[in-house]
Write a structure and sequence with these properties.
Blueprint (H helix, E strand, L loop, with lengths): L5 E6 L3 E6 L15 E6 L2 E5 L7 H9 L7 E5 L5 H4 L2 H7 L3 E5 L17 E4 L4 E5 L2 E7 L9 E5 L4 E5 L18 H15 L3 H12 L5 E4 L5 E2 L1 H11 L8 H4 L1
Parallel strand pairs: 4-5, 5-6, 6-7, 11-12
Antiparallel strand pairs: 1-2, 2-3, 3-4, 8-9, 9-10, 10-11, 12-13
Helix pairs in contact: 5-6
Length: 253
């Protein structure tokens, strides 16, 4: 195990959530720190935002240490960006998994070389729940935060919300696992990204309202640090009141 780049976020003996932090180290500081996630229940698994083609081999080997990759039932792609979806063809060739993503991006996947459209489960804008063993996965709408077709993933067993780019911190390669220790000190890594990439305060509030109805243990974004306990609440309160995107139109035009 690469202890610096792998962390078990939840394990009750039957259900496990693993965080990986693999990026293209050759790009050094020009590359944004990226997280990938694996949810395992008994002999089935879901891979969350597996990332670019550049990290496929390293992530494949890491996932294989936790479960036979042929037991990956679903690959969830929160949105269309290459740091989320760029390896879709490699995972399609290596597994029998179905790919879950917004219906808006189905046709775009061919630009990554993926042509097996019957393997895609397209999500409509309202999202969906998917049975996963005795529990469920909920695809929570997160549109325009930042992608027009965007979802977060809630795991009902671990109570972890895999939030994609929402909560992303702009840091370079993290090395070892990091969680937010002090939210006020962490805001400087969030602010510029969220102001520019999130669509508007109205959209932030809609997402926060959905998320606050969930029972949360952690918020695990695709970039940067994990939020736990009171820092999850502080992040949601901050985002709920953030002016961003179209709210700042006078600064942009």
């Amino acid at each position: 195990m690469n202890d610096n780049k792998e962390k078990i976020l939840y394990d009750d003996g039957t259900h496990k959530c693993v965080m990986f932090s693999f990026d293209d180290e050759e790009l050094g500081d020009s590359f944004l720190s990226v997280n990938q996630y694996l949810i395992i229940q008994k002999d089935s698994a879901v891979l969350v935002d597996p990332g670019s083609e550049a990290i496929f081999d390293e992530l494949y080997d890491a996932v294989s240490r936790y479960i036979d990759v042929q037991k990956i039932k679903f690959v969830f792609l929160s949105h269309q960006d290459p740091d989320v979806s760029g390896s879709i063809t490699q995972w399609a060739m290596s597994t029998k998994a179905k790919f879950v993503l917004s219906s808006l991006w189905v046709r775009f996947m061919s630009h990554y070389g993926f042509l097996e459209m019957t393997r895609i489960i397209p999500l409509n804008d309202k999202g969906a729940k998917l049975n996963f063993g005795a529990d469920y996965l909920e695809f929570v709408p997160a549109h325009f935060l930042h992608s027009p077709g965007n979802f977060s993933l809630y795991d009902s067993r671990s109570k972890i919300l895999f939030s994609g780019d929402i909560g992303a911190a702009i840091v370079t390669s993290m090395g070892e696992y990091k969680k937010v220790e002090d939210f006020d000190s962490h805001v400087k890594y969030l602010e510029a990204f969220h102001k520019r990439y999130m669509g508007s305060n109205k959209l932030c509030r809609a997402w926060v309202n959905r998320v606050k109805a969930l029972e949360l243990s952690k918020i695990a974004p695709q970039h940067g640090f994990v939020f736990e306990d009171e820092n999850s609440e502080k992040f949601l309160d901050w985002l709920e009141n953030l002016e961003c995107g179209s709210d700042l139109i006078d600064d942009l035009f």
